[in-house]
Amino acid sequence: MRRVLAVLSLLLVAACGAEAEPVDAPDLLRVLAGSEIKDLEPLLRRAETEAGVKVKLTYTGTLDGAEQVASGRADGELDAIWFSSNRYLSLIDGAQAKLSTQTKVMISPVVLGLKPAKAAELGWDQGPVSWSDIAAAARAGTFTFGMTNPASSNSGFSALVGVAAALSKADRALSAEQVGAVTPALKGFFSAQRLTAGSSGWLADAYARDPAVDGLINYESVLLGLRDPLTLVHPSDGVVSADYPLTLLASAPEEKKVLYGKLAAWLRTPAVQREIMTTTHRRPIVPEVRPDSRFGTTQLIELPFPNRRGTADELIKSYLNQLRVPPGTTFVLDTSGSMQGDRIDALRQALVALTGADTSMSGTFSRFSNRESVTMLPFNSTPGAPVPFAVPAGNPEEVLARIRRFAESLEAKGGTAIYDSLMAAYDRPLTPGRYSSIVLMSDGENANGSGYDDFAAHYRALPEERRRVPTFVVLFGESDVEEMSKVAALTGGAVFDARSTSLSEVFKEIRGYQ
Is 216 helix (H, G, I), strand (E, B) or coil? Predict the structure, then answer.
């Protein structure tokens, strides 16, 4: 099956007006957005003529965006935010003071989608199905699913909260005690997860490449937009929905508040609401527009959400360190002579940050997790000896310190044998029951040993389970963009661009896919 390249970067800027857009202009509304909003770009380009507002979207991850707003770094640089939900942001101390008017634009619940044959086999195409039913089947191994990482994507976080609230039978804000009590049931639930990702779009692509996975937990809109239809299961005990609030920042000047009001009003007009429903598969928010037949007739019940940030954070940490299938990660790292100086320092810092040295909100959730197996494979003229680390289920500090010492000891010298080193990573035995992935970082072109064609032939001859391991490629320095993109496309991975941003930030971004 043809593998599709997903090109990502930490801060991807898409101007929805002219290509050469000024940093600011009187008719320009600068919006920090989640990647889920990207499918609205064609519609937003019309806002300039129909509403008199040019929209410039800057994309970021949910947690990174929340941190940027709550810390005040968005003040003066951006005028509004547009995430799938403001629930987590609202839990951060001081964040509410950074926000002004909020306008809900559309709705999409997080639900389960299954291949029709599997839904029929389980009898879930006939009547009500609860999260408890789904959890029992997952624990028994009767179906498998993919879901985004709750630390990186709101769809995964919403799914995690929804399952926890439903299984704990919470009738009010989810508490830390309830999360603790339901942890064994959650672990059984997530034992059926076979795919993870940092974004809903990439997850959908990965699912399309893997016929062994039975379904997805994702936004209803994403599931309805898949090429191969799924049977959607709207759990009878409730869901957590995204309501996509376009939110004005309190720091926005008066002229930007006017632009915000025009855009918000335009987005809620019946004609635009119908177009949103038709083109993005999201439910309309205004009562004048009724959801069409594809959404069914099931009444959505909203499940309770944590009302304390500590509870939400502990739920995410439990998922990463206890509940999910643990990752197995191999880092193939360029330590050639061209990495001398600032570049090798940046690589050391990026790896050290993943051992817990980065204490920011996003850094806390991107460190090497408990139960994770980590292998470092540095290379220059030839592949180096792989150095494995096994992070234990409890008290990981000693192993994390060893990884830190290893990273700090890296030195730059010699040539660049990218493909021999990548082949060495793929030839290593897989650890059963893990999400296996490879991170390839190089600052230049291949100069020693095998070439891309040799690697491609080697990869295609591998057993199927090894060919399912994606390579996440990091562009750095003078990387060969064309060849690195081909590696990601061949292996079902993605390209991350660290040429104009921090290598540490890109490594954190990749963690959402592992």
Answer: strand
In Å, how far are 339, 348, 402, 409, 477 from 352, measured between CA atoms? 17, 6, 10, 11, 20
Are 19 and 505 in contact by the 8 Å Cβ rule? The answer is no
How far is residue 181's CA from residue 315's CA, in Å, rounded to a whole number?
12
Q: What percent of the chain has pLDDT over 90?
A: 83
CB 394 within 8 A of CB 349: no
Q: Compute CA distances 475 → 159, 186, 323, 488, whole Å.
A: 32, 37, 32, 11
Report the C-alpha gap between 508 and 353 in whole angstroms.
8
Place of tokens 């306008």: 103
Rounded to two decimals, what is the model's pTM? 0.90
3-state secondary structure 336-405: CHHHCCHHHHHHHHHHHHHHHHCCCHHHHHHCCCCCCEEEEEEECCCECCCEEEECCCCCCHHHHHHHHH
d(CA 498, CA 511): 14
SS3 131: helix
Question: How do residues 222-242 score in pLDDT, each as one tens digit?
Answer: 999 999 999 999 999 999 999
> What order do you get walking across the sheet with 435-442 strand by strand?
6-8, 494-497, 471-475, 435-442, 327-334, 373-379, 387-390
Q: Is the pLDDT of residue 297 over 90?
A: no
Identify whether the C-beta of residue 266 lies closer than 8 Å to the C-beta of residue 47.
yes
Q: How far is it, in rounded angstroms, from Cα 72 to Cα 75? A: 5
Q: Is 433 exposed, middle or buried (0-12, 13-18, 19+ CB in 10 A)?
A: exposed
Length of the chain: 514
3-state helix, strand, coil in the chain (%, to 5): 40, 20, 40
Alpha-carbon distance of 243 to 453, in angstroms, equals 47
Specify burial of residue 103 (Cβ count, 10 A radius: 0-12, 13-18, 19+).
buried
Token pair of 47 as six digits: 């806002």
**CB 153 within 8 Å of CB 512:** yes
Contact present, 246 and 261 (Cβ < 8 Å): no
Q: At what angle are helices 452-460 and 481-491 packed, to 10 degrees?
A: 0
- 3-state class of 136 per DSSP? helix
pLDDT of the residue at 171:
82
Kindly indicate the confidence band of residue 14, based on its pLDDT and cuts at 50, 70 and 90: very low
| Cα distance between residue 160 and residue 217, in whole Å | 10
Q: Which residues contact 186 (CB under 8 A, 6 or more apart)?
A: 163, 164, 167, 318, 319, 323
Cα(29)–Cα(256) distance, integer angstroms:
6
DSSP states of 174-193 as a string? --HHHHHHHHHHHHHHHTTE
